[in-house]
Amino acid sequence: MSLVFTFVLVMLKGLVEQTDFGRLVESMSYDLLQHHLLSTDSIKDSPVKILDISGIQMRPTLGARPWLVTDRQPLRKIVKSLMAKQGANAPKAIGLDVDFSPDVNGYAYPDDPALFNDFLTMNKSIPIRVGVNGSLALGPKKWLVDPQYMDLASSVVVPNSESG
Question: How many domains is the chain partitioned into structurally?
Fold first, then answer.
């Protein structure tokens, strides 16, 4: 009887895990296990700090085919604020998970060269990296239009597309 019961459970599992509901249960189970595995002490001692920049407004580019880019001024203020920190609070590196790839007409936003020049100056004391994705196929010297900005570029490719 226990073998039949086990067989039925395995069959049900096989059928349910292929459905949206089954994937949802699997994802929730994983999240629950991760929540219990996390130690609050390890989070406090983590050398990586993440700032949520999702509240920064998007601005239209000024190119022939406009699209939206993250507003550069708040990003500049955040980086300058982080650079001003001293001692144990000072960052070891700063990375912006924003795609700064140029469009077909050049820089994604007209102020980008000035921003990149600021970052190059700051980069001498603390490494700063900005994201590129759309221009990866152009090669490192063209990732941020001008080869002088090549050291600022870092890939922000998402291997699996995100919903939304």
Answer: 2
Q: Contact, 63 vs 103, CB < 8 A?
A: yes
Domain with 68 in it: 48-155
Residues 71-96: pLDDT tens digits?
999 999 999 999 998 887 888 899 99
Domain assignment of residue 164, yes or no: no
Q: Do 93 and 126 touch, CB atoms closer than 8 A?
A: yes
What's the pTM value of the predicted model, to 2 decimals? Answer: 0.66
Residues 6 and 76 in one domain: no
The kind and range of the H/E element at 98 are: strand 94-99
Residue 63 pLDDT > 70: no
Strand order in the sheet with 153-155: 94-99, 128-132, 153-155
Give the pLDDT confidence of 18-45 residue by residue, as tens digits. 888 888 888 888 777 777 666 555 555 6
The Cα–Cα gap between 76 and 71 comes to 9
139: left (phi over 0), alpha (psi -120 to 50) or beta: left
